[in-house]
Specification:
single chain; 10 strands; 19% strand; Rossmann fold
């Protein structure tokens, strides 16, 4: 069951769908999908899936956390997984897998890249819904930028306080234009399809943007400096494979740089924008994080 914004967001939900498609192709599984909307009764829709023949149910997004925990307890013979599950101090049912990512680590790297690439000394961040999960992206981005240039200024704006903030490209363009006009020349978004509006702003003003969740180069060729990829597709695929093999273990999975759960994109599309020395510095920072010598903050506190 997909989060607000659904298929076609060219980001978070589409990344999860890619994992389903891979499982269909490589493992021969069949799947059914549903899409939620702001204010929808997720519990009712998830219950429909749980009561059917499916072996594992996925909730794609932190908004499913409470409902999927309750249903996992109610349907102990079924498997459940939640991407970006909100982890609390409570123990999880043994049939529930919380797929969480260390977004702050990947964001640290693209923050460093943005700061080293910026010619104005100002960079931007556009978040979707103002919640702790999205502030993890902000925290890492700012920390990475400050690590390489303590004087860099990071402009921060959020699209809203409800799930609708993840599917408002018009608002994204408005926020992007505001940050570019304020001097930012690189903007990183963590806002679902709202970020497509940030890309429009980048094209309009001939600036650079940073994609999120999946490689978003194709959404604005020539204007995407890089993307901070959360390997949601692989996490979904592996959970399905483990279910098929009977080896899925409940609990929390924390997927960061060390676990190949997050990464930044460097390829033929963007290498002309990134000097060798800059790439080497970003790679060095990644190695420091993996080795535990840099601990990236996950809150804006």
């Amino acid at each position: 069951m997909f989060d607000v914004g659904g298929r076609g967001d060219k980001s978070f939900n589409d990344a999860a769908y890619a994992g389903l498609e891979r499982a269909q192709k490589e493992l021969g599984v069949h799947f059914t999908t549903l899409e939620t909307s702001e204010g929808a009764d997720r519990e009712v829709q998830l219950r429909q899936l749980a009561a059917g023949p499916a072996k594992i149910m996925f909730g794609v997004g932190f908004l499913f956390s409470d409902d999927i925990r309750a249903l996992a307890k109610e349907f102990p013979d079924k498997k459940f997984a939640c991407v970006d599950f909100t982890v609390t101090g409570d123990s999880l049912p043994p049939n529930l897998v919380a797929l969480t990512f260390k977004e702050e680590e990947g964001s640290f790297l693209v923050g460093a890249l943005a700061a080293m690439t910026s010619k104005t000394g100002k960079i931007g961040f556009v978040g979707g819904m103002d919640v702790p999960l999205i502030r993890k992206f902000q925290a890492g981005y700012v920390a990475g930028a400050k690590a390489v240039n303590p004087k860099v200024e990071v402009l921060v704006k959020y699209a809203g306080n409800t799930g609708a903030a993840f599917k408002d490209p018009t608002k994204g363009k408005e926020l992007g234009l505001a940050e570019y006009h304020a001097g930012a020349d690189v903007i990183y978004h963590a806002s679902g399809s709202t970020g497509l509006g940030v890309f429009e702003a980048a094209r309009e003003l001939n600036k650079l943007a940073i994609g999120v969740d999946k490689d978003q180069y194709e959404d604005a060729p020539g204007f995407i400096l890089t993307s901070m990829v959360k390997v949601v597709d692989t996490a979904v695929f592996e959970a399905i494979r483990a279910t098929q093999q009977g080896t899925l273990v409940g609990g929390v999975q924390h997927l960061g740089l060390k676990e190949d759960g997050v990464k930044w994109v460097y390829d033929d599309h963007n290498k002309a924008l990134i000097p060798d020395a800059v790439k080497a510095r970003v790679d060095s920072l990644a190695a420091e994080i993996i080795a535990g010598r840099i601990v990236v903050p996950s809150t804006t506190d």
